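Figure 2 data, in text form.
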Amino acid sequence: MAISLGTSDTLLAIVPKQSVQPGPEGHFFANPIDPDTCLAMLCWKNGSVTRERVRVSTGVADWDRANDLVMNHSRPGNGGYMGIYILEPEITPLVLTAQIARFGPNDEKLAEFDSAATELRAVLESQVLAMCTHSANLGLQHPKRILVTGGASVVSFFCSFLLLLPIPPSPSFSSPFFRLCLFCCLVSSALENINCSKGESRGSPAARQRVRLSGVRLSERTQ
């Protein structure tokens, strides 16, 4: 798997043909070297530009300082605080209206977080979880190796999160379960041992409606 963390984020991976799951997001290309596999690609418009704008809004001077804040002043799962950061119209999933949504441990909607560390962890966790969910939706399996390039590849904390790819998708995620699953992933790289509950078909209209904003079901308050 290769991930480019640039102005936009791009994920590329080799997928066995039998694992291919075409859907409304992402692309599949024929592999000219191995006819039994395909090349899968996902793109997110809200990449480094979004990360930079959020960092600047917190008053943190650079990513070295941001990395220190996140590592030393916040915990995996962010204490239950989570956010969705769409500062430009998004393509994965398709979201035409720019918006930021922040939520607290009790699912309450917040105007802002109380610290820069919480804000920074929230934007990075949300982007990695989007990659996890949408790559799993395409049939990508846990990769043997991840190659990371682009400007944000120097942010060690962010790159360590990419070791989680992909999280098995589940349309029955509620926000507390989302946070629990994230915490479990952070403390263990054995993703195969994480069992997500099964719900309705991911392709059903109801499921597509719930995943339109973040790729996982948060709750109807995000609609």
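Caption note: Residues 2-222 form a domain with the Nucleotidyltransferase; domain 5 fold (CATH 3.30.420.40).
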